[in-house]
Amino acid sequence: MSIITITENWEGKFKKTSFESLSYGRHIANQMNSKLIAITIGGNNLESLIQYGADKIINITNFNFENNNNTDIAKVFSKIIEEENGSTIIISNTNIGKKISPLIAQNINAGLITNAVAYPEKNNLLKVKCKAFSSKSFVVYESDYNKNIISIIPNSIGEINQITGKGEILNQESEIKSNQDYQILKRSKQNDKISLSDANIVVSAGRGLKGPENWPMIEELAELLGAATACSKPVSDMGWRPHSEHVGQTGIAVNPDLYIAIGISGAIQHLAGVNASKNIVVINTDAEAPFFKAANYGIIGDAFTVIPKLIEAIKQHKN
Length: 319
Ligand SMILES: Cc1cc2nc3c(=O)[nH]c(=O)nc-3n(C[C@H](O)[C@H](O)[C@H](O)COP(=O)(O)OP(=O)(O)OC[C@H]3O[C@@H](n4cnc5c(N)ncnc54)[C@H](O)[C@@H]3O)c2cc1C
Hints:
The chain has helices spanning about 15-30, 45-50, 70-85, 95-110, 215-225, 235, 270-275, 290-295, 305-319, and strands at about 1-5, 10, 15, 35-40, 55-60, 85-90, 110-115, 125-130, 135-140, 150, 170, 200-205, 230, 260, 280-285, 295-300. With about 325 residues, it is α/β, with parallel strands linked by helices.
């Protein structure tokens, strides 16, 4: 029986979420006194996985995340998991992770524990605390399957650099034949900025910003803080910002260290996607805005006054 972490990369470069799921796998492997195997497709710089605790790395060279469909990717991973006799499989709950984990669970007849936010319990490795009901509550799942996949919410554990020494690296081809029924013609990244699911800091703005012409100050603030930008649903519905920035129940769920909400009222559907943030700062003219109830820090004020001042203060601080 082995502990396996599925690691995701884009054009060969490993994501921060993969280092986090490796750290999670390492923790379990240590508890079970077992080896940790990292598996991936189309990866480069495989040594980086060793730093996060992988004892063995299997990289499939004839598949990749950009061009292969999720059914094929799931088949490739399922085959390695079976060959390596995987008992606990860790994956990050990213867009791709959400799609392939149920397919793998079905292929290998494993239990699937989704949205984990903590390590399994010390004396019961199959009892895991998870988020439920759009992050409004927690649930503890216990599985009685022999094999289990645990999908973890990005940024819930953090990545832990391990100085464990050496790992074995295997580059090999898979015998799986690509499904010709449908193909991914192209997957492309929205832009080169920090992706929302990888971001430690998110600067998000809503309808209070009045129009798309007022976003340069949001982008400037985000750039100064090394943050990703996000927005509320109406903002993306109106085309002020791309849909890829929409956070909330029907958008992306984020879990950063710091979420700055500017001109957003804090409707329950918005909060569902952001209330897992470790710190929330709200900037709003309306002292009664519901978002203040979820905030760690609040500024009652006009974004058009507060944000330029904040930008100025950060610049001064940086100097
Ligand atoms: C089924 C369903 C799913 C939904 N899913 C989502 C979702 O995933 N994500 C999401 O965001 N919404 C979602 N919504 C919509 C949600 O209910 C709210 O309508 C939406 O979040 C409101 O967006 P907002 O806060 O930007 O706008 P508003 O509610 O219009 O709030 C604007 C805020 O800006 C403040 N403001 C105004 N001027 C300024 C200023 N100059 N400076 C500072 N503050 C100012 C106002 O006081 C106000 O609080 C969903 C709704 C439904 C019915």
